[in-house]
C-alpha cells in the first residue's frame, strides 16, 4: 500500500480504480469501512514464480455445510436472489426449497414473505419429524422475525433452533443460532450494547 490510510480499509471493502500513474493506482472506496480515496502500488514486493501462482491462490473449497439453511444461503449467493427464488418456488412444497425461498425473500427485503415461507417449512418438517429441517426452519423463522422487527419472536425461534442444532451436533449452525439470538436480545435491549 502506498498511502497510510489504506491500511484501515476493512476486509470486504469495495474499491474502484480511478486512474493509473506508472505503478500506482488511485482508488475510490465504493462501500465498506476505510478512507474514501487513496493510492496503492501495483508492484509486488516479492516476485512470484508463475508455477507457484496456482498453489498460492486461495481457491474456495466446495461447500460442505449440512444444514438446509446453509445450503440455501450458498444457493442464493451462487445464483442470485431472484434466480434462486424462481427456481425454489417452482419446486413447490419441498422443505429445502422453502428454506431457499426464505433466504431469497430476505435478501430481496421481503420479511413478510420470508416469514410465511419459513412457517410453511417448519410445519412441513415438523410433520415429517425431520430434526435437521426443523432446526434450519426455526433459524430461518428467527431471521425473518428479526428482519421484520419482531425481536422477541426472533429470540424465541433462535433459541429453539439453537437447541435443535445442538442436538444434531452442527456446531457451525449452532453458532449462527447463537448470533441470531444475540442480535434479537440486543434489539430487545436485554443486554448492554
List the helices and strands and how they pair.
Elements: E1 14-21, E2 24-31, E3 37-41, H1 50-56, H2 68-79, H3 81-90, H4 95-108, H5 111-127, H6 131-148, H7 151-168, H8 171-187
Antiparallel strand pairs: 1-2, 2-3
InterPro entries: TPR-like_helical_dom_sf
Query: What is the second-level CATH architecture of the largest domain?
Result: Alpha Horseshoe
CATH class of the largest domain: Mainly Alpha
What's the CATH H-level superfamily name of the largest domain? Answer: Tetratricopeptide repeat domain
What integer value in Å does the Rg equal?
A: 21 Å
Instruction: Please state the average pLDDT score.
Output: 78
Provide the succession of SSEs.
EEEHHHHHHHH
Count of runs of 4 or more consecutive helical residues? 8
Strand order of the largest sheet: 1-2-3
- Helix percentage range: 55-70%
Strand-residue proportion: 5-15%
Q: Give the number of domains.
A: 2
Structure write-up:
By secondary structure, this protein is mostly helical. It has two domains: 4-44, no CATH class; 68-187, Tetratricopeptide repeat domain (Serine Threonine Protein Phosphatase 5, Tetratricopeptide repeat, Alpha Horseshoe), CATH 1.25.40. 59% of the residues lie in helices and 11% in strands. The protein is built from eight helices and three strands. It has a three-stranded antiparallel β-sheet with strand order 1-2-3, with no helix packed on it. A hairpin with a 5-residue loop joins strand 2 (24-31) and strand 3 (37-41). Helix 2 packs across helix 3 (81-90), helix 2 crosses helix 4 (95-108) and helix 6 runs parallel beside helix 8 (171-187). The longest helix is centred in the last third of the chain and has 18 residues, at 131-148. Mean pLDDT is 78; it is low at 1-11 and 52-63. InterPro entries: TPR-like_helical_dom_sf.
